[in-house]
Design goal:
The complex is a heterodimer of chains A (about 400) and B (about 210).
Chain A: H1 3-11, E1 22-23, H2 28-35, H3 41-47, H4 52-81, E2 85-89, E3 93-96, E4 104-109, E5 113-119, E6 125-132, H5 137-148, H6 151-169, E7 174-178, H7 183-189, H8 193-202, H9 204-226, E8 232-236, E9 240-241, E10 244-245, H10 249-269, E11 273-278, H11 283-292, E12 296-299, H12 308-315, E13 320-322, H13 330-333, H14 336-350, E14 356-357, H15 369-382
Parallel strand pairs in A: 1-2, 2-7, 7-8, 8-11, 11-12, 12-13, 13-14
Antiparallel strand pairs in A: 3-4, 4-5, 5-6, 9-10
Helix pairs in contact in A: 2-4, 3-4, 4-6, 6-9, 7-9, 8-9, 9-10, 10-11, 14-15
Chain B: H1 3-14, H2 18-31, H3 34-56, H4 62-79, E1 93-98, H5 106-117, E2 121-124, H6 131-141, E3 145-149, H7 157-168, E4 176-180, H8 186-192, E5 196-198, H9 201-213
Parallel strand pairs in B: 1-2, 1-3, 3-4, 4-5
Classes of the chains: A alpha/beta (about 400), B alpha/beta (about 210).
């Protein structure tokens, strides 16, 4: 069985030859380390005030090539490590020099969000959400009008990015496209969470207008990702925080339920399967995920209390499960025995009957490639089907 | 003003009705009565305790917690000019900020709304705060607690730098340190030698209330 058959067999809740292992490699430093490449100059250039504007210009003129290069390296690295699959992502951003950010640049994305882009000493580029571009309805209307003029080009670039990666690497790894700019997150993040909650109570029609636009955008984005021909696509929205849902599940249903049903319908109409990404404690949403038509779920974040055995008990094989390997300690500083034990536990809890894809619960720059190597090694050793009862 | 106005304020806050809460507060303000203002402030504190409890019990969620805090902030903005005399009854000072390299402030700001409404004097250092600035604030403000917010794994190491800076300046044993944020855990608190980890703003406030009481 090859990597793709292994992955797709598990997506069908059948037992492949062994548990498939998915990489979530996206960070340049992780790829560089694995591939033995020196750290990129851009990280130090963006920290340096004298060269920052030059980086801004490079980003604004060569964004598509930069993102392709990043995921090309990520796939090469994932192949070298022995992963069966790895995610691929395309987003669109415009960079600015902004006095709010002393050690980097500010980027505006196509969902109306503001990000901080900076470089670390070990050559990583780090991008984190900081704010919304549209704190008011007037701001949103202006932004949304401008976005409409960018959509066709964005969809073309998205499709091209995923198609090129699939053509270049699809014979050695299963690239899974991820529509990372999602509906709930983009809705609140384009205005900021405080403005979002205030608008929810005081200007519900404005919130509805934003949701409708972000949903239409997302469906177009998703359709473009699916042009690459892969059988599985990753969608997602972080609906949980550390201790529970960010918002009442019944309000999420009321505001976003229809959007999520449209997402599933589109994916299934294209004969694909949908793996849904959500961080945080999401027990309260698992049954909703089934109802909305999702085929699988990850990240199943252990530090937010997500336990594979409990999730499997709650949803049975109505959802494929992926992830759950801790990235706060285990895959950052854990020792070999701890990594091995965590892999064994995950396999024991979720792999019988198929429908489990082993992977880190998320990706970030501190995830250590050596720990990833131990994770894969343990998955190969203990993940052979039939799963041994004493794993 | 009648007891009914105070009751209306409490009910409005618990129903997350901003307009009704501000109307009741304006009725209190019109009386210019210090005792009525005190009663209203106590009511805001009580209402937020109930909101916080509903959040911790899983009955309410982050959105309700944030909006409850926003209502309290606006109500307190109306009451504050009339309550200078009450300022000396602070439960203590808390210095708080988001660590260097991190610009997130949602959790920090929720904490601030709830802590101020609970009678704490909160010194907000803002976001992207370097270790030296945390240490200076501790030296100058002599707070009972220092809160550090950190959402990003990439900036987690800043927590340790701040605590080292406090130790270097002989301040570590003079202040309790609580950390919170999505990237953190109990293990992080142990690793950086913080006194406590708070998974959310309300737990953070509970921890500081305990320290204040002891």
């Amino acid at each position: 069985m090859d990597f793709k058959q292994r992955f797709l067999t598990s997506m069908n809740h059948e037992e492949p030859d062994r548990v498939p292992v998915m990489g979530l490699i996206a960070e340049p430093a992780t790829s560089n380390y694995i591939l033995g490449k020196p750290p990129a100059d851009m990280a130090s250039m963006v920290r340096n005030p004298e060269t920052r504007a030059m980086v801004r210009d490079i980003i604004n003129t060569s964004w598509t090539e930069l993102v392709y290069g990043n995921f090309s390296d990520a796939l090469e690295a994932a192949i070298k490590m022995g992963f069966d699959a790895n995610w691929t992502i395309y987003t669109q951003m415009e960079a600015f020099v902004d006095p709010r950010v002393k050690d980097g640049l500010v980027c505006h994305d196509i969902c109306g969000r503001v990000w901080k882009l900076t470089g670390t000493e070990d050559g990583n580029i780090v991008v984190n959400y900081i704010d919304g571009l549209c704190p008011t309805e007037e701001g949103w209307d202006a932004w949304d009008g401008r976005r409409k003029t960018l959509l066709d080009e964005f969809a073309r670039n998205t499709a091209e990015h995923h198609k090129k990666l699939a053509a270049a690497y699809g014979d050695r790894i299963h690239p899974v496209g991820y529509t990372s700019m999602s509906i709930f997150e983009s809705t609140w993040q384009c205005m900021g969470f405080v403005n979002f909650t205030r608008s929810l109570y005081q200007k519900p029609d404005f919130v509805k207008k934003v949701i409708d636009s972000q949903t239409d955008f997302y469906l177009k984005y998703l359709d473009a990702v699916m042009e690459c021909g892969g059988e599985v696509v990753i969608g997602g929205d972080d609906l949980g925080q550390k201790t529970g849902p960010i918002m009442r599940p019944d309000i999420i249903e009321k505001l976003f339920g229809e959007s999520y049903r449209r997402v599933s319908e589109l994916v299934h109409k294209r004969n694909r399967k949908l793996l849904w990404h959500s961080c945080g404690n999401i027990y309260a949403f698992l049954d909703k995920f089934v109802e909305w038509g999702f085929d699988g779920v990850f990240t199943l974040e252990p530090t937010a209390g997500m336990e594979l055995a409990k999730v499997r008990e709650q949803v049975g094989h109505k959802l494929v499960l992926m992830g759950n390997l801790d990235v706060s300690y285990l895959l950052v500083r854990g020792n070999r025995v701890e990594v091995q034990e965590a892999v064994k536990q995950a396999i024991k809890a979720a792999a019988p009957g198929g429908g489990y894809i082993l992977s880190p619960s998320h990706s970030h720059i501190a995830v250590d490639p050596t720990r990833l190597e131990w994770m894969i090694e343990a998955a190969h050793k203990y993940g052979k089907y039939p799963i041994h009862p004493f794993v | 003003m009648s007891d009914n106005t105070i009751e209306q304020l409490k009910n409005a806050m618990l129903a997350l009705d901003m307009d009704a809460a501000l109307k009741a507060t304006n009725d209190v303000v019109k009386t210019q009565s210090k005792s009525a203002v005190k009663e209203a402030v106590d009511t805001v504190t009580q209402a937020l305790q109930i909101v916080g409890k509903r959040f911790q019990d899983g009955d309410w969620y982050l959105a309700e917690l944030v909006y409850g805090g926003e209502i309290a902030k606006e109500v307190m903005a109306l009451l504050s000019p009339l309550m200078q005399a009450e300022a000396s009854r602070s439960q203590g000072t808390v210095v708080i900020g988001t660590v260097a390299g991190d610009l997130h402030d949602l959790g920090k700001n929720i904490f601030i709304n709830y802590a101020r409404s609970s009678g704490f004097n909160v010194v907000d250092l803002g976001v992207d705060v370097p270790a030296a600035k945390f240490a200076s604030a501790v030296r100058e403000q002599k707070p009972l607690a220092l809160g550090m917010s950190c959402l990003l794994t990439s900036t987690e190491k800043e927590l340790g730098k701040v605590i080292e800076e406090l130790s270097k300046q002989g301040l570590r044993d003079k202040v309790k340190v609580v950390i919170g944020g999505a990237a953190l855990s109990e293990r992080t608190a142990r690793d950086v030698a913080a006194d406590a980890f708070a998974p959310d703003a309300i737990t953070g406030l509970d921890i500081i209330k305990k320290w204040s009481a002891s």
